[in-house]
Design brief:
Elements lengths: L2 H11 L6 H9 L15 H8 L4 H8 L6 H4 L8 H9 L15 H8 L4 H9 L5 H6 L6 H8 L7 H8 L4 H11 L4 H7 L3 H10 L4 H10 L3 H4 L7 H7 L5 H8 L6 H6 L13 H4 L5 H8 L4 H7 L7 H8 L4 H10 L5 H11 L3 H7 L9 H5 L5 H6 L8 H8 L4 H8 L6 H7 L6 H5 L6 H10 L5
Helix pairs in contact: 1-33, 2-3, 4-6, 6-8, 10-12, 21-22, 24-25, 24-26, 25-26, 29-30
Length: 459
């Protein structure tokens, strides 16, 4: 199969205007474009073709589709291939951070957890897409790995399940349970501190006896973790605030009980590229009080963590948009539905070609009007590409941009339905434009059919 035929086929596979008969034809072929198996809203007939597809790779593509309905993907739970079942169990490997991947039904997860193949069971327990009710149900499962998974969701477990896990016959389950319980029990924390494998996490989260805290400070044991501990006595916090280690002082500067004046008296530095993952702010991304404290702070990591909240009220969104912090800009462009246009344009201008720039450009508030007049003749091809987004861009301009020497600009124009038909047909045979032309919703059905014919897709 000639390379550009394959490229055009990939585009047709994701074309939103692809007629169902051609979609079914694509899906039935072992060489059908992978994008066809990950389309949103596949009709029942298409799902039936995928479920019976002879190529396990095709079924795997459907199993990990973030666009497919969980109830549709769940029909692969009895697939004869363990690789397909494992792919289903883990779920989508990547998805847009703005959207949530719905979990498989609890009953299907339970069947996968009882699968005869260990890799399927392991994939399920590693999945980031499990529902909280299913995770809680694992507390009584016969598999210790499942009980360990339940213990990591400690706060959602019933008291009886917690007690059982703390007395579990498996030592790793008991340790995972203790790491949850130590947040409320200093005795459990003290026990965990005796084990080097659990000491750092226990110091970070557990309720501490003063003697244990003093011993760790004197011995300089996991001080950065200790500096985060909510129960650390005030005088020890003050000692760590002037510790010679940079990471220890930084950890102290992020403590939630500090007022802004005390926080900013601590000598710390923040990496220019540090994203910010302050636990008490992250846990409060829907809490107005937490968001206000973090967003109005002079501490960059607090502001950056707050910028990951889609719940920022307008005044805090406006405040963060004016901080002149590039990481804040990036995060607002990813997470907030009302990010100002100027922030999105700053991200795009600075990071064109990166994931953050793509997230900014695909944001619903990314500007459209006026882009053709501003950027059609810009010396940078990444900016010329923006002209394609303008609703006022003429077919003549779109055609001109389809010849642009910057590949991404030409591809954007080739996928635009305003591209004149003669140029669209021509673009199907230009290797670097073929995929975009194939995905153009204005591509006539007979041209889509021709792409399938040239690619050798059986009728």
């Amino acid at each position: 199969m000639v390379a550009f035929h394959s490229s055009a086929l990939d585009g047709v596979a994701r074309n939103p205007a692809l007629p169902t008969p051609l979609l079914l034809r694509l899906l039935a072929c072992e060489r059908g474009g992978e994008a066809a198996f990950r389309r949103a809203g596949l009709p029942g007939a298409a799902v039936a073709v995928i479920l019976a597809h002879p190529n396990p790779r095709a079924r795997i593509e459907f199993a990990i589709s973030a666009r497919a309905e969980p109830s549709q993907r769940a029909r692969l739970a009895d697939d004869p291939s363990p690789k397909v079942r494992a792919a289903l169990a883990y779920g989508p490997e990547w998805h847009d951070p703005r959207t949530r991947v719905a979990p498989l039904p609890d009953g299907v997860c339970a069947r996968l957890l009882d699968d005869s193949v260990p890799s399927v069971r392991a994939a399920l327990l590693d999945s980031p897409h499990l529902g909280p009710s299913f995770v809680a149900s694992l507390a009584t499962h016969r598999d210790p790995a499942a009980r360990r998974k339940a213990a990591r969701g400690w706060e959602k477990l019933a008291p009886g399940d917690r007690a059982a896990l703390l007395a579990d016959p498996d030592p790793e389950v008991r340790q995972a349970a203790a790491l949850g319980e130590c947040r409320r029990d200093a005795r459990v924390t003290a026990e965990l501190l005796r084990d080097p494998k659990s000491a750092a996490e226990a110091l970070r989260h557990g309720i501490l006896h003063r003697a244990d805290a003093e011993r760790c400070v004197a011995g300089r044991t996991h001080l950065a973790a200790l500096a985060e501990n909510p129960s650390l006595p005030h005088d020890l916090v003050e000692r760590l605030a002037v510790d010679p280690e940079e990471d220890v002082r930084l950890a102290v500067s992020l403590r939630p009980e500090l007022d802004e004046k005390r926080r900013m008296l601590i000598h710390f530095t923040v990496d220019a590229l540090a994203r910010g993952d302050v636990r008490w702010v992250r846990d409060g991304l829907a809490d107005p009080e937490v968001l206000r404290r973090a967003a109005t702070s002079a501490h960059p990591l607090l502001r950056r963590t707050a910028a990951q909240s889609p719940h920022l009220p307008p005044d805090l969104l406006d405040l963060l948009a004016r901080t002149e912090d590039q990481i804040v800009d990036n995060l607002l462009g990813v997470y907030h539905p009302d990010t100002p246009e100027e922030v999105l344009m700053r991200v795009y201008a600075r990071l064109g070609g990166t994931f953050s720039a793509w997230m900014a450009e695909t944001h619903p508030r990314f500007p459209r009007e006026g882009l053709a007049a501003r950027y059609a003749d810009h010396p940078d091809g990444n900016y010329r590409r923006l002209a394609v987004r303008d609703p006022a861009a003429t077919p003549q301009l779109i055609e001109r941009l389809s010849h642009d020497p910057t590949v991404w600009t030409g591809q954007a124009a080739a996928e635009d339905p305003r591209l004149p038909l003669h140029r669209l047909r021509e673009a199907l045979h230009v290797p670097e434009l073929a995929s975009s032309a194939g995905a153009n919703p204005a591509l006539p059905e007979d041209e889509m059919t021709a792409v399938l014919e040239r690619a050798g897709i059986p009728g």
